[in-house]
Amino acid sequence: MEKIDVGKKVLSANEAYALKNRALLAQRGKPCFNMISSPGSGKTTILVRTITDLAGSLRIGVIEGDIQTDIDAQRIQAAQAPAVQINTEGACHLSAAQVHRGLEELPLDRLDLVLIENVGNLVCPSAFELGEHGKIVVLSAPEGDDKPVKYPAIFAKSRVLLVNKIDLLGGAQVDFDLERVQADARRLNRDIAIFPVSAKTGAGMQAWYDWLTDQARAMR
Ligand SMILES: Nc1nc2c(ncn2[C@@H]2O[C@H](COP(=O)(O)OP(=O)(O)OP(=O)(O)O)[C@@H](O)[C@H]2O)c(=O)[nH]1
Ligand SMILES: [Mg+2]
Questions:
Q1: Which domains does the chain have, with CATH numbers?
Q2: Does the first or last residue of the chain, that is N or C, have fewer Cβ atoms within 10 Å of its Cβ?
Q3: pLDDT, tens digit, for every residue of 46-68?
C-alpha cells in the first residue's frame, strides 16, 4: 500500500508569495513594514505626517490596502510620496500576491523604505504574512485600553506598537490607561517597541522616526 506523508508542510499560495516578496525586498535591500489596526486609528494620518516630516532624509513608498476607494492613496500622493492602491473588493486583509503586484508597481530604486497600510481590521490581517520585515500595530486611545488583552494575536506578533491620539488623553475626552496598555502589550511580547504618539500634533513622533530610520540604515 502506498504511504502518504501527511507531516510534510505544503506551502499555501499566500506563503509562496510571501517568500517571493521577502526575496525581492532582500535583493533590492528595502525594508518593508505592514501597518495593522482597526479602521480609523490613524494609519494614513501617521503615514502622511511621517512622509512629510522625513522628506529629504527617508524616501517612503506606500502600498494602500482598502476594501474600496483610492482615498488613502490620494492622501499619500498629496504628501508627495508614491502610493499604489489595492482594492480587496470585500476581503478583510491584503494578500501576499496583492502586495507582490504593489511592489512591482512602486519605483523601488528611488525608495529607502516600503510601508504597507493594511485593510482596517485588528484581526484578519494578522494571520496573513506578506513577506514584510515586521508588523506595526496601531491602537488609538478612543478604542480603549483593553484591546491588547482582547485582541492579543496582533500585539504578540508586532515589532512596534504605535499608541496614537495621545493628544486626547488627560482631559474629559477618553478614559485610557496608557500604562496598562504598555504592560499588557509587553506581557504578550516582551520585545515590542512602544511609541505613544499623536499624528495630529506630532507629539512623540521623533522616537518612531528614529526607529524607522535605523531599520532603513540596517538594510543598506
Ligand atoms: N485627535 C486625533 N485625531 C487623529 C489622530 N490621528 C488621526 N486622527 C483622526 O482620526 C481619523 C481617522 O484617521 P485615518 O488616518 O483616516 O485612520 P486610518 O487608520 O487610516 O483609517 P482606515 O484607513 O479607514 O482604516 C481622522 O479623522 C483623523 O484626523 C491623532 O493623533 N489625534
Ligand atoms: Mg487609512
A1: 14-20+30-219 (3.40.50.300)
A2: N
A3: 999 999 999 999 999 999 999 99
> Nearest ligand, CA of residue 38?
1
Q: Is 79 helix (H, G, I), strand (E, B) or coil?
A: coil
- The grid coordinates listed for 99 are 502586495
Backbone phi, psi, residue 116, to 5°: -105, 130
Taking the C-alpha atoms of residue 128 and residue 124, their distance in angstroms, rounded to an integer, is 8
| 0.70 surpassed by pTM | yes
Residue among 41, 43, 45 whose CB has most ligand 1 atoms within 8 A, to mutate: 45
Q: How far is the CA of 43 from the centre of ligand 1 (A)?
A: 7
Residue 75 in this model has a pLDDT that exceeds 80 = yes
Question: How many A from CA of 40 to the centre of ligand 2?
Answer: 7
- Write out the DSSP string of 42-89: SHHHHHHHHHHHTTTT--EEEEEEESS-SHHHHHHHHTT--EEEEE-T
Query: What is the share, in percent, of the chain residues with pLDDT greater than 90?
Result: 93
